[in-house]
Amino acid sequence: MPEGTLCNKRPIETKEELDALLSDKGGKLYYQEMEELDVDKAKLAASLEKTCNSKMRTWLNMCARCGLCAESCFLYQVNNRDPKQVPSYKVQSTLGEIVKRKGDVDNAFMRMCMETAWSKCTCCNRCAMYCPYGIDMGVMISYLRGLLFSQGFVPWELKVGSGMHRVYRAQMDVTSEDFTETCEWMCEESEDEWPNLEIPVDKEDADILYTINAREVKHYPEDIAEAAILFHLAGENWTVSSQGWEQTSLTMFAGDWEGCKMQVKEVYDAMERLRPKRMIGTECGHAHRATVIEGPYWAGRKDGKPPVECIHYVEWVAEALRTGKLKIDPAKKIKEPVTLQDSCNYVRNHGLAETTREIMSYIAEDFREMAPNKEHNYCCGGGGGFNGIGLYREQRNVALRKKRDQILATGCKLVIAPCHNCWDAIRDLDEEYEIGIRWSFLKPLLISMVEVPEHLKPADE
After folding, report:
1. Strands in 213-331 per DSSP E
2. Strand partners, 240
3. CATH value at residue 81
4. Which GO molecular function terms does the record list (predicted)?
């Protein structure tokens, strides 16, 4: 079957196509069609010729299959050290074979590649730190995902996610009107406790442009209010954009590189239109990676940088605490043992480990490290899109065991997770394994302990 009705080589471009895919609950028909989907071998060979660069080919050729990457992979560890979970094997048995065969592969092989690319790797890039040759297997699995997406072999949820970005420029069906109305609603909800609280929209030349995760609009609108409260307390001159407010990119998880470019350019257009001094993104690891680390290259920016300086939320929090814009009431600091989840995407891949520990020094009296930690920490178990793929839920639940064991070893019942995927994975591991923990973003914790200036308190106080 060259093309299915739902499972095909075409990206979602219209709301009608997206609605049709969504109506196939769980992707039942989608996966049935996938079993009959033809591989366009000529197109795959042409893609390899055009995009598989010398660096990628060199990495494939120089890999010594030494296995030193094995223990670095949490999925290898939690799956009884299965040799098929060794990172080098995962790359060589999939991408390596596609390159070797010059795209002459069949449907069964591509479905095996899909399972490997999305259920046996989160692209956390920990293995790259331990490869004696410096081979970046996370990058190669990401490249593999792109080849698979172009041939229609992508998990249903990520085909949906890619479609959401192409139709709505957000990972969920949230329009710009939905976003601005939610901002207004959150101000109204907060006005009794926080008089004069504002969420400025489309303010030009502000010091800060704040971008968010669409899940906050859809499911956690209080997160938007909490960000506004903290900017309010810090006296920041800030704004959000009515267009380009969504910082995340499920297109990156899906391997939809054209969609990645479309999404990040929407954010960059907002920067160029509103001219902020800098952009601050919410507590989300992959959003930071998509917009700040990978985004400039998708957008074709030759300097490798976004249009304005961009920082992660943890960088702003550390700065605000360091400069006294936010002051912590010592009596309200966290007294109980507390640990911290290091997000792969802004800690391992952007060097912000010490930044988050600076924050902990201000807010916690008994901070306990996971082991290992910082850039050596393990993935939460749900990164790279793993959290949301129903087909691989059983494998994802097994993957959560590493983080479960790390948390239990600290003796802490509270985990701070300044990243949406990490927050979700830690929530799910507690539901799955019932270890009796709590988890939190930074924002609500900071609000509970920050000193409120007299002029910002309600009149009755």
Report:
1. 238-239, 278-281, 309-312
2. 201
3. 1.10.1060
4. 4 iron, 4 sulfur cluster binding; metal ion binding; oxidoreductase activity
Is 162 domain-assigned? no
Tokens of 367: 């901070």
Which residue in 279, 259, 292, 282 sits closest to 164, CA to CA?
A: 259
For tokens 């004069």, the residue is 196
- Which amino acid is present at 316? W
Whether 341 and 416 have beta carbons less than 8 Å apart is answered as yes
- Cα–Cα distance measured from residue 383 to residue 388, given in angstroms and rounded to the nearest whole number: 9
Q: Give long-range contacts, CB 8 A cutoff, 24+ apart: 70-73.
A: 71/130, 72/126, 72/127, 72/129, 72/130, 73/126, 73/127
Domain co-membership, 243 together with 375: no
Please give the pLDDT value at position 11.
97
Secondary structure (3-state) at 367: strand
Q: What is the pLDDT of residue 2?
A: 85
On whether both 173 and 316 belong to a single domain, the answer is: yes
* CA–CA–CA angle 237, 241, 247 (5° rounding): 105
∠ Cα 252 258 38 (to 5°) = 90
> Is residue 457 over pLDDT 90?
no
H or E element: which one contains 440? strand 438-440
pLDDT tens figures, 335-375? 999 999 999 999 999 999 999 999 999 999 999 999 999 99
Half-sphere exposure of 267 (CA within 13 A, CB side): 36
Q: Are residues 74 and 132 in the same domain?
A: yes
Task: Sort strands 208-211 and 438-440 into parallel, antiparallel or unpaired.
Answer: unpaired
Mean pLDDT of the region 269-275: 98
CA dist., res. 90 & res. 216, Å (int): 34
Cα distances (Å, whole numbers) of residue 72 to 139, 150, 292: 16, 30, 26
- pLDDT at position 460 is 63
The C-alpha angle 437, 443, 445, rounded to 5 degrees, equals 50
What's this model's pTM, rounded to 2 decimal places?
Answer: 0.96
| CA separation for the pair 189, 351 (Å, rounded) | 37
Question: What DSSP assignment string belongs to 15-41?
Answer: HHHHHHHHHSGGGHHHHHHHTTPPP-H
Cβ(290)–Cβ(420) below 8 Å: no
Q: Which of 322, 348, 371 is the last residue of a domain?
A: 322
Q: Are residues 241 and 141 in the same domain?
A: no
Same domain as 307, residue 290: yes
Domain span at 341: 327-449
